[in-house]
Amino acid sequence: MPAAPVIANNMPLVALWVLGRFDLLRDLYGQVLIPDAVRAEFLAIQRPQRESALSSATWIVTVPLGHPQHALAYAGLDEGEAAVLALAEERQAALVIMDERKGRRYGQRLGFPMAGTIAVLLLAKERGLLGAVGPSLAALLDAGL
């Protein structure tokens, strides 16, 4: 597990929630940080169910930005993506988990290792935590993700 934190954006959280596999984040990375803005995005719909899942997943930790104004530097990104990158800078992230292409390009330019939901699923399969990736991808497609 990386010494520096792993930071996740909303879409990978949504995807893993849909699959009922928040545990993959724990098993692969130990602890995953999310900024307040990502928590708010995640809880914007289906709040009771998502809030219950998030509170049960004690390895997903919501942390405030030390310098919220740094998120303003990421023009063209939504609030959650900008907060993820600002938090990644503040905490010198070992990995940023984000699906959105524009946000990933920003993160790569900043020098952060980037991964998306599919990379998380592939790593889980490689480590024996997931039998096959195909059924998970099909479930995500069926859910409109």
Polypeptide structure, described:
- The protein has a single domain (6-142), classed as Rossmann fold, CATH 3.40.50.
- Helices cover 52% and strands 11% of the residues.
- The chain is of the alpha/beta class and 145 residues long.
- It has a five-stranded parallel sheet.
- The model has no long low-confidence stretch (mean pLDDT 94).
Count of extended strands: 5
- Quote the average pLDDT: 94
* Count of discrete domains: 1
Q: Assign the CATH topology.
A: Rossmann fold
Treating each run of at least 4 consecutive H or I residues as one helix, how many helices? Answer: 8
Q: Let me know the CATH homologous superfamily.
A: 5'-nuclease
CATH class: Alpha Beta
Structural class by secondary-structure content? alpha/beta
N-to-C series of helices and strands: EHHEHHEHEHEHH
Choose one word for the global shape: globular
CATH architecture: 3-Layer(aba) Sandwich
Task: Give a quick summary of the entry.
It contains eight helices and five strands; from the N terminus they run βααβααβαβαβαα. It has 145 residues and is an alpha/beta fold. Strands 3-2-1-4-5 form a five-stranded parallel beta sheet.
Give the topology:
Elements: E1 6-8, H1 10-19, H2 23-29, E2 32-35, H3 36-42, H4 47-56, E3 60-63, H5 79-91, E4 95-97, H6 101-109, E5 114-115, H7 117-126, H8 134-142
Parallel strand pairs: 1-2, 1-4, 2-3, 4-5
Helix pairs in contact: 1-3, 2-7, 3-5
